[in-house]
Amino acid sequence: MTQYSRRSWLKRAVPALGAATLPATGVLGLRALGQAVQTNSTPGQRPKLKITDVRTAQVNVHGPQTHVRIYTDQGLIGQGESTDAAVGTASLVRSWRRMLVGQDPLNVEAIWERIRTAGVFAGAQGGQFTTALTAVEIALWDVVGKALGLPVYQLLGGKFRDKVRIYCDSGRDDVMTPESDKKIEWIKTQGFTMMKVDVDDAGDKNRFDRVNWTANNAEIDRMVKWIEHVKGMIPASLELAVDMHGRYDAATGKKFTKFVETVLLVWLDEPVTPDDLAAMADIRHSTTTPICCGENIYMRWGFKELFEKRAADIIMPDIQKVGGLAEAKKIADMAHAYEIPFAPHCVVSPIGQMASAHVCASVPNFLVCEWHWIDNLETWKTFVKEGEIIHQGYITLTDKPGLGVEMDEQAARKVQIPGTPWFEANA
Question: Cβ neighbours of residue 333 under 8 Å, at least 6 residues apart?
Fold first, then answer.
């Protein structure tokens, strides 16, 4: 049984009372103090919390992201983030206020399931609905961690590793230019053990058709030369992955994977659209190049078909839109049963990046996690009060409660989407 001293009782009582109660010295003040001590010091009793509000803010850095805050009657505030399908999610979050206010935020999965099942006829299977729900779920876990004084990875079952390996996505520049080479040189100095480049290019002058994504030989030649150029610039210790962004058709995907087999890529991202997992599986079984997909698949039900079809060697759920932290862990656990590594897609702020790191620490089959703010370094380094969270290609988990980082309002508001609310009540 936990032993409590008078000092520890008072420390636990003060937050429950609030600053306005502290000066009270009469009978009522002492009675309130005694009740607070009793409420907050009973062994075995979890914190009593209620959600009082949910608010949003939106930024645009690597595309639009929606930030969500959950407010409670004890002054604890949880923060979450969603991406990609984030435009339109703020109104969805506001519509769920009636299902959130008054609820105990510690019942994370019950709240998540209630909202999800209530939206069966409103698109809860994916897209904006699941993206918005993801940000809410992450904010709830942040509240729980702060309430219990535990980091989120501990709430997810504990950590397998103290440091989470990060790779740098360099994005797509005009290939083989001084600017793109300068970016690669920078990546080499930062301690990353893996990087990624894009090869899809809607503006490729060799394309015959702006709509059709069947790559001709000249396009494939350009793509292969870019990969060979990058490989020639980096040491063997810096691994390389390539992204096709699901744009090409099955014929192109199958042809291209054969061309790059000798390059020994860590993986090739989405050579075809994730809408056709049978085609993805066909390509996967036709090549020795590992195939990775999953950033555009939602929740465990979407991944169920991917696993059954053996459509990927590696999965990369986007934790900021896949359904949340618990959902991402469930997907990773499913992948583990199929001996598939877990390598999350991640294009968000340090808040979402750290949220992803908690999941990555808590699963055995984690491989590496993406980082994609190379073109926004100043914003990245100032977005949270903790400053830079990636050091020599790794994020080190701390014992701070919740997610372990807090937004720097002044820095974050510099990239606010004009005309959108900034955590205003009822906005």
Answer: 363
Residue 55 predicted with pLDDT over 50? yes
- The pTM score is 0.89
Q: Where in the chain is the domain with CATH 3.30.390.10?
A: 51-149
Q: 268 vs 17, 113, 162, 257, 283, CA distance in Å? A: 55, 34, 28, 8, 11
What number of other Cβ atoms are within 10 A of residue 256's Cβ? 23
pLDDT in tens, 183-239: 999 999 999 999 999 999 988 999 998 898 999 999 999 999 999 999 999 999 999
Q: Is the pLDDT confidence value at 243 over 70?
A: yes
CA–CA separation, 404 and 128 (whole Å)? 27
- What is the rounded distance in angstroms from the CA atom of residue 183 to the CA atom of residue 203? 21
CB 323 within 8 A of CB 359: no
Residues 6+ apart with CB under 8 A from 50: 72, 73, 102, 103, 104, 105
Average pLDDT over residues 416-420: 95
Q: For the residues of 289-340, what is the DSSP string, one character each?
A: SPEEE-TT--HHHHHHHHHHTT--SEE--BTTTSS-HHHHHHHHHHHHHTT-
- Residue 296, amino acid: N
Q: How many CB atoms lie within 10 A of CB 87?
A: 16
CATH 3.20.20.120 fits 154-400, yes or no: yes
Model pLDDT, residue 16: 42
For the chain, residues classed under CATH 3.20.20.120 are 154-400
Q: How many Å apart are CA 268 and CA 262, to the nearest integer?
A: 13
pLDDT for 304-338, tens place per residue? 999 999 999 999 999 999 999 999 999 999 999 99
User: Could you report how far apart the first and last alpha carbons of the chain are, in Å?
Assistant: 46
Domain 51-149 grouped into CATH 3.90.230.10: no
Residue 174 — very low, low, confident or very high, per pLDDT cuts 50/70/90? low
